[in-house]
Amino acid sequence: MARRENGLSNRPETVESGVSTKAVTSSQNPLIKGIRRAVASGGLTHDGFCVTEGLHLLEEAVRGGCEIGPVLATPRALSLVGGMDRVYEVPEAVFAQISTTLTPQGVLALVRPPSWTLRQVLAETPLAVVLDGIQEPGNAGAIVRAAEAFGATGVVFLKGSVDPFNPKCLRASAGSLFRLPMVYGIAEETFWAAAAGSGMAVYAAMPLGATSLRDADLTGPCAFIIGSEGRGVRPDIAGRATALRIPTAGVESLNAAVAAGILLYEARRQRARQP
């Protein structure tokens, strides 16, 4: 018989499709309750794990060398998680209570994300993205994904922005949050002190910015501040940065993630032309 652990069922371990499992049968199980609390708060569990749903994110976490905690799978999905060390079989009805997607795959894992410092984000010749009040987790995750795709050194979530470990943000990042240096909950003054120390130029993405992206030299150390979906970059932050606009035709402003992608692409293009 399997020993009782964290309130798990003491029924015998089962082996299905080569996967050794324990069973979680109750929605009141401490593991299930902890996951529900993390999902509701949009952040980490009490012991520092993020909730990742779907096989792709689990694979990305493994590829990123992250510590993998408990892996929960419905009976039909057990065969997808072969090779995992701590697999718990969960009934469909219980899994539905912790799922954050409309069409669950039946796989959910607790993953301990990497820990980074602001110094690492602004390392060497920094190309950083700074999120100022971004609240939409899908936008934040897409920005992180674009940052990795275009060679950014990292992402800074200022205080007041969405928690990067919100399940929707994790999904939108498609695993980039497991690899790209990222810090969150950073105070504004902490960022400015680090920016001054790195000697980098700081640009605030603004529809009516005085400097056009066509004229900006992005080959040196720099950071792009992306403001919230509703109000943009806060005035006190914008006043300490160079206001940078993306030339557009027919519309004044762009989605935050689209704007970040364009700025990062241009920085990468300019840097690729350097000897």
Q: What can you tell me about this protein's structure?
A:
The protein has 275 residues and is α/β, with parallel strands linked by helices. The protein folds into two domains: 14-112, 60s Ribosomal Protein L30, Chain: A, CATH 3.30.1330; 118-272, SPOUT methyltransferase, trefoil knot domain (Alpha/beta knot). Helices cover 31% and strands 22% of the residues. It is built from nine helices and 13 strands. Helix 5 packs parallel to helix 6. It is elongated, with a radius of gyration of 21 Å.
Provide a count of the helices.
Answer: 9
Rg over alpha carbons = 21 Å
For the record, what CATH class of the largest domain applies? Alpha Beta
- The H/E string reads EEHEHEEHEHEHEHEHEEEHEH
**CATH homologous superfamily title of the largest domain:** SPOUT methyltransferase, trefoil knot domain
Uncertain residue segments? 1-18
Shape: elongated
Second rung of CATH, namely the architecture of the largest domain:
3-Layer(aba) Sandwich
Sheet with the most strands, sense and barrel status:
7 strands, parallel
Question: What is the CATH T-level topology of the largest domain?
Answer: Alpha/beta knot
Instruction: Name the strands of the widest sheet in spatial order.
Output: 9-8-7-12-10-13-11
Mean pLDDT: 90
Query: Number of DSSP strands?
Result: 13
Helical percentage: 25-40%
Q: Which range does the strand content fall in?
A: 15-25%
Termini separation comes to: 65 Å
Number of domains: 2
Derived from helix and strand composition plus strand pairing, the structural class reads alpha/beta
